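FYI - complex with adenosine-5'-diphosphate, inputs then prediction.
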Amino acid sequence: MSKHSFQAEVNQLLDLMIHSLYSNREIFLRELISNASDALDKLKFLNVSDDCYKQIAFDPKIQIRFDTKDRKWLEIEDNGIGMNDQDLVENLGTIAKSGTKNFVSQLTGDRKKDSNLIGQFGVGFYSAFMVSDSIEVIAKKAGEDKAWKWTSDGKGEYTIEESNRESFGATIRLNLKEDAKEFANRWTLESAIKKYSNHIPFPIFLEYEQSEYDDQGKEKGKTKKNDQIGSATALWKRPKNSIKPEEYQEFYKTISHDSGETIATIHTQAEGALEYTTLFFIPAAAPFDLYRMDYRSGVKLYVKRVFITDDDKELLPSYLRFVRGVIDSEDLPLNVSREILQQNKILANIKNASVKKILSEIKKLSEDKEKYAAFHKEFGRCVKEGLYSDYANREELLELARFKTTASEGLMGFAEYKARMKPDQKAIYYIAGLNESLLRNSPLLESFKAQNIEVLIMDDEIDEFAISQINEYKDLPLKAINKSGANDDLPKTQNDDIIKAAEPIAQKVKKALGEEVKEVKISSRLASSPACLVLDENDPSVQMRQMYKMMGDMPLPDIKPILELNPSHEIVQKIGAIDDENLASDVSFLLFEQAQLVAGMTLKDPAAFGERLSRILSKAI
Ligand code: ADP
């Protein structure tokens, strides 16, 4: 017999589970039945695809038994893939998924009590400790000779020893807590199985004793019975109109390990050239690890009801990784390998149709503004990832993306923006950056405000990246207003004579600033500010440059901004009259530095800026 300690995070998880987690403890049954079903799935796959396992006589089922006399124990048994001693250590002593592991280790203090948070990932096997004083797992791996017994009371340690078991599979024996004896009861078990596990594609049997009575109504003995509970049909293969909403929800919980709600269920049973079934769910809330590198997407592939993989990035594009569900194909070969999957035409067709279906369901969601805002808050970034990664569906995705805007509170899509445009407006305008309040107060907006033209505010990191791939929406060009020439189409706020007269001032300032700026221009876009910074039309923005830098080691040339001056502003007009070269330089630099600060940039030489400001202030006072 060997003694082992649980990994620290397992102890934390057990502690959470026992002390603060669930009001409905019966979910442990769902978790154990779902594990049994997964184990049967795995063996079924080997049974049909791997020569070594083809000889195995395999009649998959899940058997549940309980102590009918003293109600002290409950057993869940399957004849699935089973486990050997090493599997027992890896599976029932550690948390394999690093995302989950990190998450558990962060759950401390008050967050411990937040069962919503913990409901986001699979509580799994360990949930059985909510109802058990101790647990024994007796398992034998298919294809191996030895059986093993794992035992633990969930208090930090477990033991593993050799054991006996006739055939492959696993038996989970729960020694029930005094206050959990209700689970050693036919009716409790039957109703919980129907409620939580009715969609499991394998038969579930429940063994119990039935009393028999004589003519006088006196009990004359008991007989053992073993009834099949549940339909043993994969939920997705049942006719759509026979499935209740609660059944969809329970199925979602089993496959996603998320105890939260869903906002859309998309069930497609396709017949014809290709025969397949897909059942997808859009969760109400984003999983905590959606943006982690090791996030595992939640779609399972079946071929004729045989589970093939849930670890294939090819099943749906990565931007739809928040979608959970199953794809079941009648046409793929059962022995598909990963390589085959990657270039398989059938799967590619199913995938394309699925993406279209999911996007059109999201479109339906978007008809309800409030509901859609909630969806967008959770998954808007994924939609925007799609904007730059899924060229084929760009038009649909353009209808789904939402942005902040200068014209109203809340979010705005391109279609609504277009409908609200002024009759002679020729483009969709946006301003991008990372700080909403800086963007809203940017001098670049002055001429747009003056003419009541709406500008989209793109302050999410991903916005500018996504939009960089898109030049137009329905023939309307998208224009970044911090680029030179962005407002060439707008009526001018300054007349040509004033602009022309101020040209020498621009030259004077450029001479003072030298190579700090690409150009100094007299602007027609400013109303109240003296100056602003823009970028040359073809230059990437500061954020884009940072993003490129993070993505690769491609060296980027230093890009210099263009300084635009407001010819009607008092300071600008006065520069023309300055004779003192040092003073002209100080004023030019201060204008430039002020424009940088207003744009949220950092100054190259703050000390020199301070000195300049002091010189000017002492003259002014
Ligand atoms: P999850 O099911 O989310 O992976 P669990 O804690 O419920 O997490 O189970 C951990 C692992 O233990 C499973 O992934 C599986 O490999 C193994 N396991 C659990 N129950 C069984 C079983 N009945 N038969 C075979 N393996 C099992």
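The chain has 21 helices and 22 strands. The pocket of adenosine-5'-diphosphate is lined by residues 31, 35-36, 39, 78, 80-83, 91-92, 122, 124-126, 170 (CB under 6 Å).
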